[in-house]
Amino acid sequence: MRPSDQKIYLASKSPRRRELLRQIGVNFELLMLREQTPRGPDVTESVQPDEPALQYVARVTREKAHCAQQLMLARKLPDHPILAADTTVTIDGRILGKPVDRNDAANMLQTLSGRTHQVLTNVLVVRGEDWWQTTQSSDVAFCKLSPQTIEAYCSTLEPYDKAGAYGIQGMAASFIELIAGSYSGIMGLPLFETAQLLQRAGIRIL
To answer: Is residue 101 flagged as an active site residue?
Structure first.
C-alpha cells in the first residue's frame, strides 16, 4: 500500500477514469462534485457562444478542479493533489457533448458516420497553488453506419453520458476503422500525459 502522501483526489464520477487510474497504480479517493444544489450543479458543461473546443474543454476542467479544491478546503480534508479531466468530441468545429436523449444520440452518430473526428481530453492536476494542465487530442475514423446500426446502438445504454454518444471501450469499437492518438485519452484519461502531470505534483507512478 502506498503512503498517504501518495494519494490523490479524483474529481470525476467517470468509472472509466477510475479504471484507468487503477491501471497505472494510482491511489485515489473520489471527490465528487455536486450535481444538485440550490444554485444548480457545481459545474455546468454548457458551451459558451463561439467557444472553440480546445478552450471549452480546458475551461470546464479548470472549473471542475477549482470546485473540487474548494470542497476539499470546506470539508477540511487532508491536502492531496486533485485530478480533474474533461473529454469532448469535435467535428467541423462543432462540439458534440453528451446526448440529451435518444434522438440526439442518433443525430450525433449520423454526423460521425463515415468520417474522422477529434476527441479532446483535458487533464489538470492541482496541488496547493500549483496547477499543471494539458490537452491530448486524438483522431478517430468511423466506418459508414447504417440507420439500422445506429438504431440498434441507441437501444443500448452505451451512447448516454458519453461525449459524442459512443464509448470506445464498448460495442462502438466495431465502428472504428482507425485511431491516431491515445486510446486511453479517447476513453477519458490519457495515461501518458496524466502520469507526467502527477509526477510533477510529486506522485510516483513506478
So the answer is: no
